[in-house]
Input
Amino acid sequence: MSPLLTGLGQGSGSSRRWARWAAQAAVPGRLRTTSGPSDHVVVVGAGLAGLSAAMRLAGSGRRVTLLEREAVPGGRAGRLELQGPTGTYRFDPGPTVLTMPDLIADCFDALGESMEDWLTLDPVSPLYRAQFADGSSMDVHSDAGDMAAEIERVVGPDEAKGYLRYVDYVSKLYRAEMRDFIDTNIDTPLDLVTPDLARLAALGGFGKLAPRVERYLKDTRTQRAFSFQALYAGLSPYDALALYAVIAYMDSVAGVYFPRGGVAAVPEAMAGALEAHGVDIRYSTPVASVEHSGGRASAVITEGGERIPCDAVVLNPDLPVAYRDLLGVESRTSKRMTYSPSCYLMLAGSTAHYPDAAHHTISFGHAWEEVFAELTGGRLMSDPSVLISTPSVSDPTAAPEGRHTYYVLFPTPNLQSAPDLDWERIGPHYREHVLRTMESRGFPGFGDGIEVEDVTTPLDWQRRGMEAGAPFAASHAFSQTGPFRPGNMWGENVVFTGSGTQPGVGVPMVLVSGRLAAERITGKVPGYRSRAYR
Output
């Protein structure tokens, strides 16, 4: 085994697994695929990952049947409409920060379609507005020159120079990481032995994120603005590997976008393109189980009792749920997983208006390292940092005239780390905490302006099929990253896709996950090269 690989496994509790997988790799670099025929594939779940997989499979000539339990596509990226006294409010109840649009375009390319014919994406500017506890604020821009000027205005010229060095660093990380460690199926650690592994190690990618950021950025405000993204990976910046700075690249350098019609317009466009290419999409069709014997799936059974024979199955539900509820088997790997923090999400349609509001605002509290310890230790944040999105700033049609839509996300412990938090009981009290915090963070009158609202607690996320009530799935601790993350195959012809499997969490990752799932059935597409790194 490569000494570098051995060293990376040491101290993580994973070195024995590296050795075992290396010994089992009879033909390093050969992609493991499903066996037997694959003419008809059933995809369960029309989330972004399931849609991505279906587009690749249909583009390869497979007959695809896509089953979705909801009445619309998208999964967590679906659409919610609430009726107010003067009209309809439209919400995105899942992801709101959309990055790496080239990965969406790749899906349409697989069908021979142009994304621009189906979907319009507008850049969000600023990407975020970072508000700090000392009363200062900073607009985050994707253009490095504009961002350096903003940092110089808020902090000073030395910090601006440090930022430019940081951009150079995360850009190198992205180039070293994307193709060989994210956008590829990994069967054994030997699959990682590429020149980019040495580059990633030389860049300090396997060290901790916070100390790496602090090498370039000295002010606590800029440190927070360019390291909070670790929470997307389910970790604090003090625990996350430095390689997850690539998430900061994906939004703070590559840019944030907003689809016309809301984030739900993305899965709607993907589903429309699939139907135009003959894919049978069946909405309001929950699946009860996958029929299998000896490790080979033969059919999918719907809750209505219909049996749909197939040659292969792609499962998009959260991985532990797919194993337990659909396959009826126990996955020792997924059972051992630790999960990302959860969140309390309030969607509010409101008469409240705040001049010069940004589309996305990150409101940081005084505390930083302490609140991450609280989240992972099963305690509610005492001094929360929160995300407030106002989509109606970019799309006035999301709300009745003179009104706005608000997406307010407070990170919370998941149900695994905080099993004693009774959300049925504390939910109403926590709502008051959310409103008080909003009022004190520059949103006066927020509670009084609410006309309609929808609240999701960790318990609600669990009821919707997310293990441990964690909408961000298993965390990206070292022992749950890369080849250590649960694999995307089971038996002879069942493939998983979504945030619970490789490569991981976030819209860009699940879009890639869909392609990786399809490749398990079709094999690698000769000459394929993502737009994301052309």
